[in-house]
């Protein structure tokens, strides 16, 4: 029966393997964009008017969106983003998103290949609310492999 029940989605870690190995840079509160789909192309066959053929062309990956509490210092991931946005130095990163079990052991891993920062933002600063400042990082990447 081991492995029968679906795992929980809140126990995971994100590692920027060639950017940072700091513990604070692996803690994110959400990861979205781990999906893949096919672009398609339609083909109309001569003499066949009942339907069009829809053929797969290439795979397409959405942006990977990472959210965490805003770190005020000592973040190599933030420095990596700033190098891209301020100096236009783009260094492709390799990320490893790992789903963990109750014993903190890996269940599944997504290896994100050649990621670069597309957008960085923080939540609105508002004196009328009592919320944590959240940093959002949107990454463009080539593809991922599932381990």
Automatic annotation (TrEMBL):
Lineage: Bacteria, Pseudomonadati, Bacteroidota, Cytophagia, Cytophagales
Cross-referenced InterPro entries: CHP02241 (IPR011747), Phage_T4_Gp19 (IPR010667)
PANTHER family: CONSERVED HYPOTHETICAL PHAGE TAIL PROTEIN (PTHR38009:SF1)
Protein name: Phage tail protein
Signal sequence range: none
Gene Ontology MF annotations: structural molecule activity
Pfam family, one: Phage_T4_gp19
NCBIfam families xref list: conserved hypothetical phage tail region protein
């Amino acid at each position: 029966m081991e492995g029968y029940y679906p795992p929980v989605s809140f126990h995971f870690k994100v590692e920027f393997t060639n950017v940072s190995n700091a513990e604070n840079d692996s803690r994110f509160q959400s990861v979205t964009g781990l999906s893949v789909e096919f672009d398609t192309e339609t083909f109309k066959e001569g003499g066949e008017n009942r339907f069009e053929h829809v053929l797969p062309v290439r795979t397409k990956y959405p942006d990977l969106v990472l959210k965490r509490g805003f770190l005020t210092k000592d973040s190599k991931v933030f420095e990596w983003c700033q190098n891209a946005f301020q100096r236009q130095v783009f260094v492709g990163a390799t990320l490893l998103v790992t789903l963990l079990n109750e014993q903190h052991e890996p269940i599944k891993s997504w290896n994100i290949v050649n990621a670069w920062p597309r957008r960085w933002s923080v939540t609105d600063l508002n004196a009328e609310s009592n919320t944590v400042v959240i940093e959002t990082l949107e990454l463009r990447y080539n593809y991922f492999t599932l381990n």
